């Protein structure tokens, strides 16, 4: 049988992992696909660089276009990242009828709709399991496993860096700044951590998941995003005391074809399975109308999980080639995108207010809550020892985002409320 | 496009769910498959029985063979259960080139290897996702998601009834007998609960999972099984005190192509993600060489999750038909089955001993442990208030099953040890 020929763009840690897995599992892969899989060309930035694996020098090249346009090559694996030149590479590869496997979440979040269309037009496959939660086969699960159900909610911890930081803050009572510094030293956070800590990375992944789950082309700009950089030690302590864990959650919901997608630090009840997902682990909870809650848990990133995920996609793409069914994966976004309004987005909220410590304040606050039709699940007031202020913690029942926004505006204008210190969504 | 024609064997709660989902999701299914899916015949035991759904009378029949042999029908869905006549039905359907979707774990555990072979010979599909953990797409995950990795361990809570019982015993301090009775009243346990509580149901599911994960034909007789009927309140209390949850775990392991599969009540460390899986929920933790630990959590059974799972299989089978790739799913058991010996099966153990309350007993016991090369993680002795006996709790480091068996024989022959009260495997 003719071998499947692969061109690999990038030989960093993930690319190296891909080469290793394809070599070490050659026998197993052959049994699954029915023919050999051979990485024939690898694009690197410097062919003379020292590497941790032995690669035949004639396989290495610095010319990506040469590889993309090589008529011998069936599949392009892209692990170089970036969204401009990389997009050109991938578009050209698809237009030439090659299949593409990528781990590039930025690319898929920004141009996923467009790329899927180009692929379909050319009967090419584009697979991207590794772009979201490397160690969890969540994309194939959404595409295949839920084919007979309607997904109503996808909620998850999809960024390992922020989960590591929040876990450490919770377990050690440490501050955000200290834990971030430690995470950077350990290599869990980038020197410029913005994309992770401000929730942008999670937003990209949630856009990808929402599209697959709800069959509608959610734009990255449709995702409402808040990161963890303003989470305080105090917030974490309150969460703990009240039986919650503070987690950066991506939440995508769909009711009657109206969707909302958001990323924000969220108080998760200890009894909820997602509350015990700690450290760099990821978890995605999918709620189906019929199947109820299903949770997928695993490593979010890391070279080996990501490389494994890429090779699993390579196997799927190779099988499709052998079977002559390339480009037929059903991931059509056949529904128009209708976003929920703030009136329609509903959840419980945690509010932490600093107020004047005098009689009648709590009554005033609860009156405002009632006015905006926000009902209380619990309320707690405690005096500050060293000042004439008090803190009030409110947990609401389900309230609309619009009501909470109006309520907070009113709170900000009230004299007895010195400060709205924290506002968090509550789940579970 | 020609519709896919389905014959349904059985119209109990799951069968009814299948009919409802296929009707309600007709539009979505059509978009996914490319043609309509039509249930044309339903086999029931009494066509005149009152039913909760409206079914055209001419669709109902009491003659299963008529449906199996109907040349119009493409796919048989089997939800009648049983393993004798049902097996004949399925063999005939496959031999006639029809595809089969079944939720029948007993059938697949007993005759899976044989049925897969018959299917392959006839280029027919046989899909059985609903046979294990209805609400978790674990079978397709093992088949597709881990195709590029080597699975070394599959560990799970795969029986909801026993997990419900153990959860209640833990949360309420209730006895096994009381909780079983309650579970029977609530319909969570059968009138004859043997298959669940003695671990047989879990063993069947583990045999199915081990075959898929390790590519080897694990026989049901190869599974070592112990149920929960002898678990005491005291065991649960000790587990709690020591930071463990007692769970009925199925554990399948594979090292260098040698496998072991077992089901037994196991102490699971609270910090392990499986420890927080409570009630009727199921969870399966899959460890891949590269990907590390991945856990899948969801409803284990229930009409809707099971029916949803069946329809997802129906979608997959229908897509394969349209694509002309039926019978090509790779689930080959291409490796010979080599079982681990008791010397090779290794884990930590919890031992609860009733001993004479006098000096030197602990020393004697630790000497025996050393003799059998079993090292201690922790040991705890406490006197019984109302007798001159004491209890010793030992948690070992990793020890071979063979060493523990010999050790227990020795313990049983020692005068100072009145009774080996409990022995549990420990995980996490």
From TrEMBL, chains A, B:
Belongs to the homoserine dehydrogenase family. Gene3D superfamilies: 3.30.70.260, Dihydrodipicolinate Reductase, domain 2, NAD(P)-binding Rossmann-like Domain. This is Homoserine dehydrogenase. InterPro entries: ACT-like_dom_sf, ACT_dom, Asp/hSer_DH_NAD-bd, HDH, HDH_cat, HDH_CS, NAD(P)-bd_dom_sf. One of its GO terms (molecular function) is homoserine dehydrogenase activity. It holds the Pfam family NAD_binding_3. It is an enzyme of class 1 (oxidoreductase).
């Amino acid at each position: 049988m003719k071998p499947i020929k692969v061109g690999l763009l990038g030989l960093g840690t993930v690319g190296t992992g891909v080469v290793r897995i394809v070599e070490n599992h050659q026998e197993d892969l052959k049994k699954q696909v029915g023919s050999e899989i051979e990485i024939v060309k690898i694009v690197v930035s410097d062919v003379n660089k020292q590497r941790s694996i032995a690669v035949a020098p004639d396989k290495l090249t610095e010319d990506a276009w040469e590889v993309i346009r090589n008529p011998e090559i069936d599949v392009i694996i892209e692990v170089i990242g970036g969204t401009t030149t990389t997009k050109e590479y991938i578009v050209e590869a698809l237009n030439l009828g090659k299949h593409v496997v990528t781990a590039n979440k930025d690319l898929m979040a920004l141009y996923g709709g467009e790329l899927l269309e180009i692929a379909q037009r050319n009967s090419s496959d584009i697979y991207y399991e590794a772009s979201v939660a490397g160690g969890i086969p969540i994309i194939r699960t959404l595409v295949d496993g839920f084919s007979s159900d309607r997904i109503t909610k996808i909620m998850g911890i999809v960024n390992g860096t922020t989960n590591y930081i929040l876990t450490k803050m919770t377990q050690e009572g440490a501050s955000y700044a200290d834990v971030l510094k430690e995470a950077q030293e350990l290599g869990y956070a980038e020197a410029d951590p913005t994309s992770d800590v401000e929730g942008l990375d999670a937003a990209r992944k949630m856009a990808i998941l929402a599209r697959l789950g709800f069959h509608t082309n959610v734009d990255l700009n449709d995702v409402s995003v808040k990161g963890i950089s303003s989470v305080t030690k105090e917030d974490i302590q309150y969460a703990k005391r009240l039986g919650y864990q503070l987690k950066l959650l991506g939440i995508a919901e769909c009711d009657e074809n109206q969707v909302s997608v958001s990323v924000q630090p969220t108080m998760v009840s200890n009894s909820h399975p997602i509350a015990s997902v700690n450290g760099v682990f990821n978890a995605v909870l999918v709620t189906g109308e019929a199947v109820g809650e299903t949770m997928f848990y695993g490593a979010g990133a890391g070279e080996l999980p990501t490389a494994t995920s890429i090779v699993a996609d390579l196997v799927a793409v190779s099988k499709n080639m052998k079977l002559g069914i390339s480009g037929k994966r059903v991931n059509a976004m056949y529904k128009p995108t209708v976003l929920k309004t703030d009136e329609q987005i509903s959840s419980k909220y945690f509010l932490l207010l600093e107020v004047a410590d005098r009689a009648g304040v709590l009554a005033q606050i609860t009156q405002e809550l009632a006015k905006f039709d926000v009902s209380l699940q619990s309320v707690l007031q405690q005096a500050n020892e060293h000042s004439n202020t008090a803190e009030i913690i409110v947990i609401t029942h389900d309230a609309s985002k619009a009501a909470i926004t109006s309520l907070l505006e009113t709170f900000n204008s009230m004299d007895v409320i010195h400060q709205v210190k924290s506002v968090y969504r509550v789940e579970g």
